[in-house]
Amino acid sequence: MRYAPYFIAIFLMLTTTSLAQDNNDSSQVSDTALVNSSYLKLKKAFDLTHDVKNNEAFIMAHEVLEVANTIQNDSLKAKAYNVLGVSSIMRDSNDEKALDYLNESFALYEKLLDTARMAMVYNNMALYHKYRNEYGVADTYYEKGLKLIENSKDRKSLGRKAVLYYNMAYANYKNEHYQKTIAYLNKALEIRDKIEHKILVGNIYWVFGWTYLKLNDYEKAHRYFDQTIYFSREMGNLDLKIDAYDGKIEVFTAQNNYKSANAYLLKMRVINDSLNKVLEDDKIKKIEYEYALKDREKKIALIEKEAELQKESLKISNIFNFALVSLSMILFIFGALLLKKNRQVKKERDRANELSKAKSNFYSEISHELRTPLYAVIELSGILLKGGRDFSSNAKYLKCLKFSGNHLLSLINNVLEFNKKDKRKIDVDYLEFNLKELIENITDSLEYALKENENTLEMRYDESIPRVLIGDSLKVTQIMMNLITNAIKYTSNGHIDVEVKMLIEEGDSIQVYFCVSDNGLGILEEEQEKIFKTFYREKAKNNNSYKGTGLGLSIVKQLLNVLDSDINLESEVNKGAKFYFKLDFIKGEEGVDKENEQDFFVRKLQNKLFLIVDDNKINQIVTKKVLDQLGLTCHVVGSGKKAIKTIKAKPYDCILMDLHMPEMDGYETSNQIRMFDKGVGIVALTAASGEEVAAKIKDYDMDGYVLKPYYTSNLLKAMVEAMAKRKQLSLG
Questions:
Q1: pLDDT digit string (tens) for 339-386?
Q2: Which helix (H) or strand (E) covers residue 711, if one does?
Q3: Cα–Cα distance, 230 to 118 (Å, whole number)
Q4: What are phi and psi of 34, to 5 degrees?
């Protein structure tokens, strides 16, 4: 369990949000570009400290301190000393200079009568003593900080109060005073609706999880660790996610559930590997900055002496000369900034025009891309309906339908990934899957597109690759679907090769090489960098090259970066193109294959009664048909109110619940069902994003979810797990 980093991170995230707004909190703050840029530099230094780039933050804070001493600005000096103190703690918890910096900051804020920031410095002094295991002294500083702002109602003070409550909770956790821990955590949570501070909330849930683990309340411990994982994904905070996984492992181990503990251990190992790479880079940067720091410390000492001399000199200097020099300096700075601003405005205007044009083309193209397969789906469905029951004669129409559906799904996935890119929400999901089966499904789904361009495709798959792997199968699917589709698009009357082979095998880890090559049009050398940019579509010589949204290869590069890899390209005009990359996976457990696994689930679900709740008639028909073909008994209702009435009249073993329904949605329906039936399993069927659903279903006591469209085996697995959780059946 790694506690220390979160105290610093919580505090800095909170103070950073308010830093830029404090430019006018002292009468000594001069309204100049120089002062404003210094505040912005301090804000960036806070951010770097949060990213554990402490040496860089330390140097930037020193640079601001030079400016503050030169212009004699106490407010700027106070903030600079505070950053120096915090970054010193993060660099070396035994650095006594850290406390000297913080005392300087406190004295200046006391002089400025700024009690809110005095409380902020008290918090950092407490952190200094906590790192030195002086918990009694640290608690005293926390109490002093709370006393200063206990009656404050403004947003910034509320945020600082929440942090102090959290730190008091942690101190009590360390001293094994668990009831006090819970009390302080609840006080911190009471403030969360008044401030926007996700990392604080994530860490509160994290300490809740460990506290309830110590109290042997495993259900609450699981729930709070799950909420911590959700917040860590929202923030992209790998440290917090690893510690949440660590908590889950401890809870599962305490419950003797070693299989689940091992699964989380594998996930944690994958994240640790990527985190270690970042830490190695930070070590290299740290050495570089250590040399810079020594020079900087000497320079700041000289600057401070020069500032004192300058102060004496200014008292006896000629007022006219001083005003003239000051005016010249201001005009020079203003002119330089104005010139820079004009260049910036022109650059941003050109970029905005380019982006506007690209987006206009994108929306025009996406309209075409969506309407084309939709037209095929609608018209071919009509042909099939008119053709009667002789579906064997309509095989080509069914293949067209399948291809159009897959094309639509791929397109929608690309647009959703592009949306995630804008919001920085992309996460990695580790699941067991069969890589060979995944690649074969992709190539089978593109059979119609191959024939349309009169292409052939050959797959070379290395059979030494383990059958079951652990990795993000959805992202692998999107990457390969986009690359093969791209090869088909730019190749006519040609050939496409798909190669998958094992490169490295070390213990439970393997590295796999993927390659998609064609003998099509090829790509000009000067175009090869551009094709990975969003909305870019290469202007080639055939009509097919103009199709598409311009997102495919951009998404490929983006997803590979998330998976800690990159795309490589080799191409020559009129000779074709070759795209290749490497991915790391973990070996999964060799179990039964998909077909046997599905049979196992069906056998478990025999003689059970299921209720489908969905307001969409087509969805009702599809879901019921899936269960009917498997010999499972099910009933259908079209609203949440009817579901509640039906379940009260007759017991069901499991409910398949649509989440988006009018009047009463799936969440509220589940909530009301739980008031009188705790034993029925409830599985959500939804087309919403997994991140949106995962955390919310826990709040409404639902047992799992399945994203539409889904594989039948995944649906059955979710139903079995939900019923096992509710003691309706065993997994043995």
A1: 666 677 667 666 666 655 555 445 444 544 554 455 456 555 555 655
A2: none
A3: 33
A4: -60, -45
